[in-house]
Structures are given as structure tokens and as C-alpha cells.
Amino acid sequence: MAGFLGNLQTVAVQVVILYLIAGVGFVADKTKIFVQADATKLVDLLFNMILPVAIINSFLSMERTKEHIVGLAVSFLLAFLTHFLGMGIAELCFKKRSLLERGIYSYAMVFSNAAFLALPLAQSVAGEEGIFYSSCYVAVFNILAFTYGIREISGRKAKISIKHVFLNPGSISVLIAIPLFLLQVRLPEFLMDTVARVGACNSPMAMIVFGTFFANCNFKNIFAKKEVYLVSLVRLIVIPVTMLFVFKLIGIKGNMLTALTISASAPVATNTAMYAAKYDNDTALSSELVGQTSILSVITMPVIVALAQII
Asked: Hey, how many other C-beta atoms are within 10 angstroms of the C-beta on 191?
């Protein structure tokens, strides 16, 4: 019990720190210093440059061992399994809904806030190994978001471009990072320092951006719909708890277990609202899904991650 409470406190403190940083973005938006429109532009910088650099830096910092090589492959497989579990549950839950409504609920259930919350939290709790294993989850997220995700949230109208599966920043960064890791490439010290400093911007910037989006949620409606509660239950508890038992069953442990559990237990992806707007779906509903799961995740994530470390 003491071990669980100690782990719970450690993870909870890191979650609170990240959400306090998000509070900076929340206040900045409410005071019109840095509003959601500004943050949307910053998302492009984060997604296209800073996040890839953070991923590459974690692979450059990782020693090539048998454990890390096997862990890399296993992390990819388990990331796919986590997303497929979400897809199966979503298919069962929303059969009778319209394609557009089903699409937004399905996207929310399947895709966690892997890049903007899980990756920073994994870094805070598990260091460079946390990013190393979480990066696999982010890569799988991108592959499936640009295929299944776009198809669903567009009401199954959007055409899927295969080039987007691999030619997106998240996937490209992992494709670059893996050979660097396997070949144990060592850049000159000044370049390593540059890469590390740019990568370090990912956590605070991502959370500030997240805060601005959170500031634009309609808090009156966040807890009004039973379907939103269902998504929260599946996204924050059913999927991560199920996957936690799978992780334990096949012997996953240490920082890899922590990173994958954090990724699986994160709230609804922030880009749910962005894709809803892009494909003429319900942006208000998407914001409610992001808002409710983000609030509840302050409680659920520390409990599940602490549970993972003592089972």
C-alpha cells in the first residue's frame, strides 16, 4: 500500500505540474495575450519541428542494447493493439448513430492525447526511456489517425492518402531516429546540445497550447451528455486497465510499462476538435469530449500509472 501511495504521489505531482503549465495557456487565452488562433499556428511548429526533434533526441540518447531493441518492436505492436482495442469497442458502442456522430465518438475513444500530454508526462516520470517508448505510440497514432481516424471523423467521406501514413512528421522522425539509434550515431557535442534544447521545448509548449484549447471548451455542456461519460469511461479506464493486464501478462515492466500505460490512459486527443472542424463535424461535441476527459484524467491517470508500477 505504501508503494502504491508513493507512486501515486509521484505521478500525480507530475500530472499537476503539466496541468499548471496548461493553466498558463488557459489564462493567456482568457486575457487575450495568446489566444487559440495563435496556438493553432504554434501547433504546426510543435507538430512539424519540435516534437520530431524531441523524438530524435530521445533515440540519440538511448544506448543500443538487446533490451531496448526488443522493447522498440514490442512497443510498436502493443501500441497497435491498444488502438485496435479502442476501435473494436467504439464499433460496438455507436452502431446506431449517424456516420458523422459515430465518427467523432470513435475518434475520441481510440486516440489519446499521446503527443501533447502522454509524451511530456512519460518524459517527466520515466526520462529519456519514457520518450523512447512513447515515441512508438505516437508513430502508431499518426499512422492510424491519417487512415482510420480521418475516415471516421469525416463520416467516411474523406479519401485516404497512403503517403500521409508515412510522410508525416511523427512517422518521419521515428524513421530517422531508429537508424540513428541502431547505428549509435553520435553527433558533435554542440549539435547534441542544440537538439536537446529544442526537444526540451516540447513539454511546456505543448501544454500551453493545450491550455488555450481547454479555455475554449463550453464548460456548461462538458458534463451534460451521457455519451460523453461513456467515452470518458472507455478512454480513461476500460482501455488502459485492459491493456495494463495485457502488458503485465506478457512481462512488460520498468520504464517501458510506465510509458505505454501513460500513453494508453491519456485523455482524448486535442486534435479531435481540429479534425472535426476540418471535416465539417461537430466541433462543440469534440471540445466537450476533450474537456471532460482532460478534467477526469487528473484523477485517473495517476491512479492507473501507480497501479501499473505495483501489480
From this structure: 11
